[in-house]
Design brief:
Elements lengths: L11 H9 L10 E5 L4 E5 L1 H7 L1 H6 L12 E3 L4 H13 L16 H13 L1 H5 L2 H4 L3 H8 L8 H19 L3 H9 L9 H13 L5 H13 L31
Parallel strand pairs: 1-3
Antiparallel strand pairs: 1-2
Organism: Aotus nancymaae
Protein name: BTB domain containing 19
Pfam families: BTB (PF00651)
Length: 253
């Protein structure tokens, strides 16, 4: 019976350093991206991206024809975020900053770390341009999180700003852009005076379905019981206390 072969491991640090040197390096590059509003040219390597990420496998699936291939244009992706994704794909590690958090490429492990980073730095992250440029699919796991360190009133305002930017870029109504994500806002956490103000603002600039606001008022009317519990009434880590919370059994989970 053959004995098992000897497995030899090289130094992970030197391997990672070597691959990091290829990030945005034109040497041996066979694919170019034009990224962000600045239209910055970024160089990469097709085989590495395709084997590491399903998004790029689909994007780069067609073999390039003869001659110099045209660049792949990703005008809605922030440049810093794209470079952070590349660094993670090449080296399996990346240092996250509030300007470079990216969750748009279907990278499970990286997305989990990005969400955790935003949860811990919620107020800073919500004020960045990168937040305003998130896709709806990227924003959803954030709005579903109980661990966001931000009050619901501020989160509603951030969602409105995000939808306004998307509406301007896509030339669609604010409410239509917001529809996939606003259902995750926990309006019942707002005090009655805040909910009234939101209702008036919503009349002037539709953002949230009327039915969702009605459900929030129901939570206030019920004040207790199983019907007043659940995600729409559950506090986040950064939820500021309000007088009516004591009726809704709102211990943070």
């Amino acid at each position: 019976m053959d004995s098992p072969g000897l497995v030899v491991h090289g130094k992970a640090e030197s391997f990672s350093t070597a691959l990091r040197s290829l990030v945005n390096n034109p040497r041996y590059s066979d694919v170019r991206f034009v990224v962000g509003q600045e239209q910055q040219e970024i160089f990469a390597h097709r085989c590495l991206l395709a084997c590491r990420c399903n998004f790029f496998q689909r994007l780069l699936g067609t073999e390039p024809g003869p001659g110099v291939p045209s660049p792949v244009v990703l005008s809605t992706v922030p440049t810093e975020a794209f470079l952070a994704v590349l660094e993670f794909l090449y080296t399996n590690s990346v240092k996250l900053h509030r300007h470079s958090v990216a969750v748009t490429f279907g990278l499970g492990p990286l997305q989990e770390h990005c969400v955790a980073f935003i949860e811990a730095h919620s107020q800073e992250a919500l004020r960045t341009r990168g937040f305003l440029e998130l896709s709806a699919a990227a924003l959803l796991p954030l709005l579903r999180s109980d661990k966001l360190c931000v009050d619901e009133a501020e989160l509603v305002g951030a969602a409105r700003s995000w939808a306004r930017v998307g509406a301007a870029v896509l030339e669609r109504p604010v409410a239509e852009v917001a529809a996939p994500v606003v259902k995750e806002l926990r309006l019942a956490l707002l005090a009655p005076v805040e909910l009234s103000a939101l209702e008036e603002q919503n009349r002037q600039e539709p953002l949230i379905p009327v039915e969702q606001i009605v459900e929030a008022w129901k939570c206030h009317a019920l004040r207790r019981g199983d019907e007043a519990r659940g995600t729409p009434c559950r506090r986040r880590k950064g939820t500021l206390p309000r007088e009516h919370h004591r009726f809704l059994d709102l211990a943070f989970k």
